[in-house]
Design goal:
alpha/beta, Rossmann fold, Alpha-Beta Plaits, four-stranded antiparallel beta sheet, 12 helices, 14 strands, globular, disordered N terminus, disordered C terminus, binds adenosine-5'-diphosphate, binds magnesium ion
C-alpha cells in the first residue's frame, strides 16, 4: 500500500464520520454527525464537549470497539475497519468502563497489565516502580484495587496505559473525579509521556484541563466538531468576549440591572465588585460602564480578553439548535 507522507505524519484522521445508535423499541440516536479531524503525531489532543456530545463514541470507533455507520477513520494511515488488528497493536486506552483487577494490588495491576502486553519481566518491574512514583501511588502500592477511592482507581488506570509502549494513547475522562493535587501529578505524567513522542488523545468536559494540558483542541457538540485548532487559536475565537472586573464606590440593584442588560455570560457580585463576562460590541459595553461611572465613582477596572471557557460557551451557545 502506498501512502502519501502527509497521511503517515498523522496519528489519526477521520472523514465525515457518522454514528447512529439504533436500539430496539427506542428512537435512533445520532451520536456523531459528520466528524472530520486529524491529529498529528506527538500532540496532546483534547476532545472537549459536554456530556452526550459524542466523545466516547468517537473514541470507541478509533479504538475499533464499534463500527461507524458511515465515513472513515484511520490510525497511522491504517483504516480502523479494514485493519483493526494492526490498529489495536498501536494503541492503548483508558475508557470510561475500563475495569481494574479488583483483587490484585496496585503494583500487581501494573505488572499484570504489562505482562499481558508482553513487556519483559525486568522491564515490568522497572516500569511499575516508575509509574508508582510518577503517579503518586507509593502509599497504596500494596492495597487491593477494590479498596481504592474512585479518584485513585482512575489514577491507577491511567498509570496502566503507560506501562506499555504504544505510540497512541486514548484517555476518556481519565482525569475526572481526581482531586486537584492528584490531578496535577497525572497531568504532569501525561505531559512527560507526550514529550517522549507519544500521541495522546484525551476527552474531557473540563475546560481548564484541556486548556492546561492540550496542544490542540477540538470542541464537539451534538456529534459535530464546532471548533478545532491549537489552544491559542481557539482562544482567539473567543476574543470578542471580554472579562471585566469593575469596582464602584457603591453598588445598587439598578446598576446591576444595567449590566445585566448587556446579556453577560457570567455576572458575579462580591461586595462592590462585579465580575462579568460579555461578548459583542465593545462600544455598548464601554457606554454602559461610562454611564454608570458618572453616577458612582469607578474605583477599579480590569479588562481581559476571553478565556477558553468563554470561547467554549460562545461557540456551543451558537451551535445549539434546540436549547433546553
Ligand atoms: N450504546 C449506546 N446506545 C444508544 N445510545 C448511545 C449509546 N452510547 C451512547 N449513546 C448516546 O449517544 C450520544 C453520545 O454519547 P457519548 O458518545 O457517550 O457522549 P460523551 O462521551 O461525549 O458524553 C448520547 O446521546 C448518548 O446517550
Ligand atoms: Mg463519554
Amino acid at each position: 500500500m502506498i501512502m502519501s507522507p502527509s497521511i503517515i505524519d498523522l496519528a489519526i484522521r477521520t472523514d465525515n464520520l457518522k454514528k447512529t445508535y439504533r436500539e430496539h423499541s427506542k428512537s435512533p440516536v445520532q451520536a456523531l454527525d459528520g466528524v472530520s479531524l486529524s491529529v498529528k503525531r506527538g500532540e496532546i489532543f483534547g476532545l472537549l464537549g459536554r456530556n452526550g456530545a459524542g466523545k466516547t463514541t468517537l473514541l470507541r470507533i478509533l479504538t475499533t470497539l464499534i463500527k461507524p455507520t458511515s465515513g472513515t477513520a484511520s490510525v497511522f494511515g491504517l483504516d480502523v475497519q479494514q485493519h483493526g488488528l494492526e490498529v489495536r497493536k498501536q494503541i492503548c486506552a483508558v475508557l470510561q468502563e475500563n475495569a481494574l483487577e479488583l483483587f490484585l494490588s496496585v503494583k500487581d495491576n501494573l505488572t499484570t497489565f504489562a505482562r499481558f502486553h508482553s513487556v519483559p519481566t525486568e522491564e515490568r518491574e522497572k516500569r511499575s516502580l516508575r509509574a508508582i512514583e510518577q503517579f503518586g501511588l507509593g502509599e497504596h502500592k500494596n492495597s487491593k484495587a477494590m479498596d481504592l477511592s474512585g479518584g485513585l482507581k482512575r489514577r491507577l488506570q491511567v498509570a496502566k496505559v503507560f506501562m506499555v509502549d504504544k505510540p497512541l494513547v486514548f484517555l476518556d475522562e481519565a482525569t475526572t473525579g481526581m482531586d486537584p493535587i492528584n490531578k496535577r501529578a497525572v497531568l504532569d505524567a501525561i505531559r512527560e509521556q507526550a514529550n517522549q513522542g507519544r500521541t495522546i488523545v484525551l476527552t474531557t468536559h473540563i475546560l481548564q484541563e484541556a486548556e492546561e494540558l492540550c496542544t490542540t483542541i477540538a470542541m464537539i457538540n451534538t456529534g459535530k466538531i464546532v471548533a478545532t485548532g491549537d489552544v491559542n487559536a481557539i482562544k482567539a475565537l473567543g476574543s470578542t468576549v471580554y472579562e471585566l472586573s469593575l469596582t464602584f464606590e457603591m453598588m445598587n440593584d439598578d446598576m446591576i440591572a444595567q449590566l445585566r442588560s448587556l446579556n453577560p455570560q457570567r455576572l458575579e457580585r462580591k461586595g462592590n465588585t462585579i465580575h462579568l463576562c460579555v461578548s459583542g460590541m465593545e462600544s455598548n459595553v464601554l457606554d454602559t460602564i461610562s454611564r454608570l461611572s458618572k453616577k458612582t465613582k469607578l474605583t477599579h477596572l480590569e479588562v481581559n480578553t476571553g478565556t477558553l471557557e468563554d470561547a467554549f460557551v460562545e461557540l456551543l451557545g451558537k451551535s445549539e439548535e434546540n436549547p433546553t
